[in-house]
Known about the structure:
The complex is a heterodimer of chains A (about 525) and B (about 325). Chain A is built from 19 helices and 13 strands.
Amino acid sequence: MNRGAALTGSLLVATGLSIFAWKTLVLHLPVLPSNVENLWRVELEIDARGSGQRGSVRASLPDSDSQQEIFDERQTNDRLVFTIRTEKTGQRLGVWSGKFDGVHNLSHAFRVQLAEEPLPLPTELALEPPKDVVDSYLHSSGRFPSDAPEIRDLLANLGPPNPSDPLGQMRVLLGYVTDEILTANTGSDDALLTLAAGEGSQVGKARLLVALLRAAGYPARISAGLRLHADKEAREAIWAEAWVGGAWIALSPSLGFFGARPPDLLLLRTGSSTLVEETGLDALSFRYRVLRESLRANEVASFMVPSNPLLAAISLYRLPVGSQSALRILLVFPIGALIIALIRNIIGVRTFGTFMPLLISLALRELPLTLGLALVGSVIALGIVSRFLLERLQLLLVPRLGVLLCLVVLAITAQSLLGRTYEVKNLYASVLFPVVIMTMLIERFSITTAEEGLPAAVRRLATSTAAAVCVYPIFRIAALEHLMFGFPELVLSVMGVLVWIGGYTGYRASELWRFRSLARGREEEPR
Amino acid sequence: MTISARLRALGVLGMNRRNGVYTSRWNQRMHYPSVDDKLETKRLLRDAGIATAPVLAVARLHSEVRRMLHDLDSYASFVIKPAHGAMGNGILVVLERDGDWFMKTGGQWVDRRALSYHSESIISGAYALGGQPDVAFAEERLQAHPDLRAITAEGVPDVRVVVYRGVPVMSMTRLPTRRSRGRANLHQGAVGAGVELDSGVTNFAVCDGRSVDVHPDTQQAVLARAIPEWERVLEIAVRASDQTRLGYVGADVVIDAEHGPLVLELNARPGLAIQIANRAGLVPRLTEVDRSVRPDMHWSDRIALARDIARRARGGSLQ
C-alpha cells in the first residue's frame, strides 16, 4: 500500500472513530438500540389549497390515556395561526386558521408510546352511566339509528338484554357484526344499508355496532385512529366504544378486538370518524407518516437535544419523518459499498455490474430472503428466456432493451397481483428503480452466454447472487441502521477503510487459486 | 509456506498490484482512447509505419451497414469487428461465402441479414465497453503462418507481448482450439504457450489451467516451437507501444502467412494469465526494467535489455 493511501485512510478512520467515541463516551449517546416496544413517531402532513379566503383546517389530536402516552408534539404552520382547542367532549383539535392563499404545507408530529399490556376489562358492571354520557351517547340519530325497526328486530333475534352480563351481550353484538357483515372498502358508510347489504365499510360496520349497542341500552360512540406499521403508510382505522362499568371499552367489528385496543392501534378521535376537516378551502389532502423508534424516549431526547449546541443543530433526529426514513436507508449504503469492495478486491469475485448486487439487495430489503430471491429470480429467468427468443427477431439494441424492460415491468405487475391474492402486501413497494438494473442484468447475462458460454454466464450470475446475499443483511439489521443514523460520522471511517482497500496491492483470495499451479509447479519440479 | 508467500517469492503479479502500482501509474487515462478504439490504433500505427491488419470497410452509422456489406462483395472471407470491443467480443469471422450465404467459424452458414444485424448490434454498442455507440469495421481475414498451422485449430494464433516502459518483459503465443471456437483467449479454452523473449521459442504451455505438451486438437507438440520472424515481432510490439505513450501495454501480434508480423491490437489492461503460460512471475522483471531502463533508449537497445532480463530471469539471478 502506498503511504498516501495508508495515511489518508487512517486519517479518515480516526476522524470518524474519534467523533463516534466522543459522542458515546463523553455525551453517553446509546450505541445500540434498546429495542423498546411500540414507541412511534407519527407525522400528519396536510396540503391545503385556498384562493385567498379565510378558512381553517382542523385536525384531531391524540390525547394520552391509559393505553397511549403522547409527547414531543410539534407543528409547522406555514403563514397560518395554529391553536389547540379542546371540545366539550374532551377531544383536542389542532386548528390552523387564517387566509389560505395558494398551497399551505402544514404538519403536526408527535411521539407516542403505546401500552404493551392490554387493559383489564371493567369489573364494576352495575355502575350506572352518568347523565352527560347518557345524554350524548344513548340517543338514536341518523348516523346511529338505534330506534329503527330493523335494529330493534335484529336485537330481539340476537337475544334479550341481560343486565347481569353486559359484556356477554356486547360480545354477541360484536360477534354478529364481525362475522355476518363483510368488510369491503367499497361498502356503504350507512348503518342500515350495511345491515341490509350484508357488507359495509369500516365506518358502516362501526356505526351499525354503535346503533345496536345504543338500542341495547349501552352508551356507545365511534372512534377513529391509526394502525401503525413500520415502513408503511399508516392506515386509518374506525371502531366503536361502549361505556360499561365506569369506563369506555373498545370494540372493533373490522379489526376484531374487544375490551382494549391492540398495541398497534393509536386513538386519535372519539365521537367521530373524521380525522381532518376544513372550511373555506378549495382542496385538502393529508397523510400520516409513521416511523418506529428504536430508542427509549429519554434516549431519543439525548440525540435530539444533546448538551452540545453544534450537535443539536445537526441532529438527524430533528428531521421530518419522511426524510428520516430515506436517510436511514441511505446511510447504510456505504457499508454495502464496503462489502462489495471486499468481495471484488480482496476476495476477487467477478459480478455483473459494480454495484448491481447492492441495488438488488436493496430491492429485496422488505422481503424475506428466500421469497425475495425467488421473485427476482423468476423475473430474471423469464427475461433471459425472452431474450433468447428476441434474438431471432434481430432487433436493434435500444428497442430490444426496451422490450426487455417492458417484460420485466409486466412480470413485476403480475407478481404484485399474485402477491395481493396471497396477502403479501407491498410486494415491490420500493422496487421501482431496480427495474432498469434487472433489464441490464438480463442483457449482460445473454451477451456473456453468447460470448463466453453458458457456464461462464451462470457462474457469474451465481457470484452476483452470492454478493447480493452477502449485502442483504445490512438492510435488515436494525442495530446497524440505528448506528449509522445516530452516528453518521462513521461514514468517514467507512471511507477510510475503502481507501485502505483501494491501496491494497496484495493478492486477491481468488488469485491464490488461479495461480496455484505456479506456486506448486516450481516446488515439485525444480529446474 | 503459505500459497500467498510462495507466489510473492516467485514474483507473481496480482490484479490489485497491476492496477494499483503499474497501470494506474504508467497508463494515463487520456491515452486510453488510442488503444480502446481499434481504428484509432490502426491510424496511429500506420502513421508510424507499423503494419496492421488491412481494413476493408467501415460502418459508423446504421445507414452505412448496407454499403459496408456491399464493399465486402469482392471478398471471399473477412472479419467484422467492433472498434471498441474487449476480449474478442463481437468478432464475427467469415471463412467462406457462397453468394449471399456466409460460413462462420465453426461451419455455421448465415445469410446477409444476419451479418447486417450483427453489424448494427455493434454500432448500437452491444459489445462496446461502456455500451456507447460504436463503429463496425471489416478487416482482412488473416492466415496462420505455415509454421504455426500444425498447432492451431480453426482460428489464427497470435503472440501477446507485454511491454513495460518500452521494454518487452514477457510473451506468449495463444493457440486457438476447437473448444475456444477459434478465439485466442485462454479463459475460453485456447492454449497459452510461454515464449522465451531471447530466443522466440516456446518453453511451457497450459490449457485450462493444466500443463500440456501437445495441442489438444491436432496432437502436435507445442513446446520447443520457434515463433517465425521473432525479431520483427519484438520490433513492432515495442514500436507500437511507443506510439501509444502507455507504459504498460499488451501488444497482440499476428504472423500472417502473406504479410508477415502485424499488430492486431493493443491492450492497456493486459491480463495476468501470461504468468501461468510462462510459469514465471512478472514482478522481478518489471522491477529490473525500473532499475535498468533509461529515457531516450533506442528501441533496439530496449529489446537487447529485454533479452538480457529474460535470460537472467531464467537463470534465477533476478530478485
